[in-house]
Amino acid sequence: KNEVEQSPQNLTAQEGEFITINCSYSVGISALHWLQQHPGGGIVSLFMLSSGKKKHGRLIATINIQEKHSSLHITASHPRDSAVYICAVSAGAGSYQLTFGKGTKLSVIP
Amino acid sequence: NAGVTQTPKFRILKIGQSMTLQCTQDMNHNYMYWYRQDPGMGLKLIYYSVGAGITDKGEVPNGYNVSRSTTEDFPLRLELAAPSQTSVYFCASSYERVSYNSPLHFGNGTRLTVT
């Protein structure tokens, strides 16, 4: 079974700071998802990636398949980025299941 | 498009009662999922469906049942509610398998308390 570890568990940053959230997994995967859970509880998909790097606005996601590690970066952080960020991995190409990390709670202070 | 719609948002049940959590999506997605989220834990898959008439168990199916009579609807049934089923439940859908880099679309969640 794949184990997904996220770090840090909690992160407080000043507005404008560059933020990095890490995700490590134990078994080779076919896809990795980054999700954002708003303070109100809703969950949205940010990225899916199986290799390399993706960018959307101020968010950048990278993955290193050999090291079984992914990072989510937020540039020029803003209080509206305050949320829980969740990493999830899919074990194989035919899999319907994701293994989720416990999430990283980010608070951005004005 | 409304996306994925879940009802109700909140519910309190007594031990032994039953209820159905409703989930509907208007994106014509074949793949639908039910997850539960417990405090401090990652989401866990309860059941999933790959199309109308086809359902299968996930990681934590005990105490739950599902059906998928149409592409749009995927209700989750709780029989004989127990305190261990106190959780936040999320319905989700995707166009393709999640292993194929297909994004998940989530409902807003149902907060269920069993007392």
Please, could you describe this protein's structure?
The complex is a heterodimer of chains A (110) and B (115). Chain A is 0% helix and 58% strand. Chain A has 110 residues and is mostly beta strands. In chain A, the strands form two sheets. In chain A, strands 2, 4, 5, 9, 10 and 11 form a six-stranded mixed beta sheet that branches. The termini of chain A are far apart. The mean pLDDT of chain A is 93. By secondary structure, chain B is mostly beta strands. Chain B has strands spanning 4-7, 10-13, 19-25, 31-37, 44-51, 54-57, 64-66, 76-78, 87-94, 105-106, 110-114. In chain B, a hairpin with a 2-residue loop joins β5 and β6. At the A-B interface, β4, β5, β9 and β10 of A face β5, β9 and β10 of B.
In short:
Chain A has 110 residues and is mainly beta. Chain A has strands spanning 4-7, 10-14, 19-25, 31-37, 43-49, 52-56, 59-64, 69-74, 83-90, 98-100, 104-109. In chain B, the strands form two sheets. In chain B, strands 2, 4, 5, 6, 9, 10 and 11 form a seven-stranded mixed sheet that branches.
**Total beta-strand segments of chain A:** 11
For the report, how would you describe the main beta sheet of chain A?
A: 6 strands, mixed
In terms of DSSP E residues, the strand content of chain B is: over 45%
Give the low-pLDDT segments of chain B: none
Q: Count of helices of chain B? A: 0
- 3D shape of chain A: globular
- Distance between the amino and carboxyl termini of chain A: 41 Å
The rounded distance between the terminal residues' Cα atoms of chain B is 36 Å
Helix content of chain A: under 10%
* SSE sequence of chain B, one letter per element: EEEEEEEEEEE
List keywords for this structure.
heterodimer, A: 110 residues, 6-stranded mixed β-sheet, 0% helix, 58% strand, globular, B: 115 residues, mainly beta, 11 strands
Could you give the topology of this structure?
The complex is a heterodimer of chains A (110) and B (115).
Chain A lengths: L3 E4 L2 E5 L4 E7 L5 E7 L5 E7 L2 E5 L2 E6 L4 E6 L8 E8 L7 E3 L3 E6 L1
Chain B lengths: L3 E4 L2 E4 L5 E7 L5 E7 L6 E8 L2 E4 L6 E3 L9 E3 L8 E8 L10 E2 L3 E5 L1
Parallel strand pairs in B: 2-11
Antiparallel strand pairs in B: 1-3, 3-8, 4-5, 4-9, 5-6, 7-8, 9-10, 9-11
